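RECORD CONTENTS
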Amino acid sequence: MLNLTSFIRFHAKRTPDRTAIVYGDTRVSYAALRDRIETTAGMLAARGIGPDDIVAVLMKNSLAFIELAFATSHIGAVFLPINFRLANDEVRYIVEHAGAKLLFADTEFVKSVAGLPNTIFVDEQAQSNSTQLGLGVSPAPMHVRGSDDLFRLMYTSGTTDRPKGVIHTYSNFYWKCADHVIALGLTAEDRLLVTGPLYHVGAFDLPGMAVLWVGGMLCVHREFDPLAAIQSIERERLTGAWLAPVMTSAILSHPDRDKHDVSSIRWVIGGGERTPEPRIRAFSAYFTGGRYIDAYGLTETCSGDTLMEAGREIEKIGSVGRALAHVEIEIRDDLGRKLPPGENGEICLRGPKVTRGYWKDREKTQASFFGDFFRTGDIGYLDEEGFLYLTDRKKDLIISGGENIASSEVERVLYLLPQIREAAVIGVPDERWGERPVAVVVLNPGQSLDLEAMTRHCREHLAGFKVPKELIIRDQLPRNPSGKILKRVLRTELTSRV
């Protein structure tokens, strides 16, 4: 019997009074969560939503976001979370391309959904209790789903064209949960900080709802605030979190961090980019009872395909860990041939949590697979023990004078400079070399750096052609919600100068 509410019902029977979700001042038990989900499902049914219909949400984190996700599943419909940072045209495209029958939007996003039909606005009261959206309706019965039925659509960020709708089945989701439970040792005693946006797989899936799967608790923040996150860890004795790199840095540098007890934290999963060694050591110095887990994953795989293993963080610095129990990784060349350990190529994945393709796009689906291995578009290698090392995105590889430059390699060297807090290396057009590497950095408070000093440092660690030819200092770097630096934004910006 597959449905997201099946495990909520299970825990509601066994431990009805156990807290499932904390959101602001609201605490919801498993029994109350079950009742809310079934009532909200009744509201959806009363509005004509049935099996396989698509329900979209444009919402920040809230209790209602999670309740709507579960209620949609409860009646056999398909959930479509949308990035609330998108403009009206982008939201319209996703809603229309997906064929969404109903759209829920926070009241603050009126402009983003202007002109879109069948939109229901969610005010502050309803954000804390989704049953406020449909007073007087009867609870709906649960619709049993199969493993190949759709549970969710998620649209990836478009780079050169429109976003693609990633298909997630119940099989994808449940195998994802199983892998994360195994790898992290999740139990009902786990209490997860959820401060990343729930429309993103990092917050919803890594490990996200898997904590409810085992009967644990979620502490949901509407938005990220470093001090609020620290205070929640202390107050709720939270045991784990998924944090984008920029979030981790903000917590570690907060001036009031040492005023609070964060000893309950057992682990924090990082995502978005390879973590420099200084950040890992700073994390261990602050979260003395926890470990920092580098990870690798994609929207197409419900996130978290690899996790770094305990005790090997420094030994395997630069690695994002080994594949989880039901994930297989191979490195392939452009022709799809498997490459040996130590050799760079495209990272390819297969397993039951990997998507079967893109919504209404057979051509892109076919182009994204070598047989049953999904092509990630990322470049990397496996060592002899199966630890994965990311080298670059294909599009982020810099080719200068016929030489390949992995931007991540140069960034690793830049992070050795104590002045640098964040770094991104990109290629910009160059008449002589085709491309030249440029370093865009954010400095630590009170620090300074010039091109000469950076060049001298880089030449001690890198071949001359890899050394950035320009240094640009910024107050911040553009990032997506998962914390990945948006190099395409920087590339477009710097190219336009020419």
Notes: Residues 397-495 form a domain with the GMP Synthetase; Chain A, domain 3 fold (CATH 3.30.300.30).
